[in-house]
From TrEMBL:
It comes from Mesorhizobium intechi. The keyword Cell cycle does not apply. InterPro entries: PpoB2-like. Coiled coil: none annotated. The lineage of its organism: Bacteria, Pseudomonadati, Pseudomonadota, Alphaproteobacteria, Hyphomicrobiales. Keywords: Membrane, Transmembrane, Transmembrane helix. Pfam families: PpoB2 (PF09948). The keyword Membrane applies. This is DUF2182 domain-containing protein. Residues 1-21 are annotated as: Disordered. The chain crosses the membrane at residues 41-63, 107-127, 155-182, 188-209, 247-269.
Length: 270
């Protein structure tokens, strides 16, 4: 008898009659049991909610940013959208992220806000691209569970993947602070900012044809072989597996994110 059908006959005898509906639990308990029994549902809900929340926050921030910018692509359209009232903490967060120089806040508060901003962009843009990897892991995990093998929850894999993007967000926020500080130092350096933007575009364009970019793409396009060959029932190994996939994904996209400094960090049209 398969382990996913409750193992030995003694265990099955105890659970007979209510093993599927958890009738001795209340409604919340039954819902929790159903979610625990179906990790794919948990992952889909968590990932979907995270992506939706990230995009809503970024859209609201982009509208606020369009008011302060000159004429970046799409700003005319954004300024024509209705200005919805937002909670004070969001307005403060947007101000910390969008101001060209520190306001009355400390550098630590501004840095934390920028890290969160970049991380939200990573969730909104990069987590959907990780869907094939997450789905593949869930399929392998489902097969392993049917065989009675121990399985690490898919959210551990997602945590490893997002951990890489959190680290990258920290680096990008430091670069953002550096650019803002340089831009505010003296108007004489304004022409250099244009040169830096052009160089960012050039580097990003050349990188798209590099061997490293191609290698990263191959790893991202074929998650099954990587996940299957490195399968483990240890949470730390699964976390590292998610982190490795995050690194390959970062290798594909870091140059395009660099371009955002030239076209506008909060330009959602880009």
């Amino acid at each position: 008898m398969r382990l996913d059908q409750r193992g030995d006959s003694a265990h099955s005898g105890v659970m007979t009659g209510h093993q599927d509906d958890f009738s001795h639990l209340d409604r919340a308990g039954r819902a929790t049991a159903d979610i625990a029994r179906n990790p794919r549902l948990t992952v889909n809900i968590a990932v979907g909610a995270s992506i939706l929340l990230a995009w809503l926050t970024l859209a609201a921030m982009a509208i606020r940013g369009a008011e302060a910018r000159g004429s970046a692509p799409g700003d005319t359209f954004l300024r024509g959208l209705p200005q919805l009232p937002l909670p004070d903490f969001l307005e403060r967060f947007f101000a910390l992220c969008l101001a060209p120089a520190p306001l009355d806040a400390s550098i630590v508060a501004r840095a934390l806000a920028l890290i969160l901003m970049w991380f939200l962009m990573a969730i909104a843009a990069m987590l959907p691209s990780a869907a094939p990897m997450i789905r593949t892991y869930c399929e392998i995990a489902d097969t392993a569970r049917i065989k009675g093998e121990p399985v690490v929850h898919p959210l551990v894999l997602v945590a490893g993947y997002l951990g890489v993007w959190l680290a990258a967000s920290t680096l990008f926020s430091a670069l953002t602070l550096s650019v803002h500080a340089f831009a505010a130092s003296d108007e004489i350096y304004d022409p250099l900012l244009g040169v830096a933007g052009a160089l960012a575009l050039l580097v990003a364009g050349l990188y798209q044809f590099s061997g490293l970019k191609e290698a990263c793409l191959k790893k991202c396009r074929n998650p099954f072989s990587i996940l299957f060959s490195n399968w483990s029932a240890k949470p730390i190994r699964v976390f590292q597996l998610g982190a490795a996939q995050g690194i390959w994904c970062l290798g594909c996209c870091w140059a395009l994110m660099l371009v955002m400094f030239a076209v506008g960090v909060m330009n959602i049209f880009w």
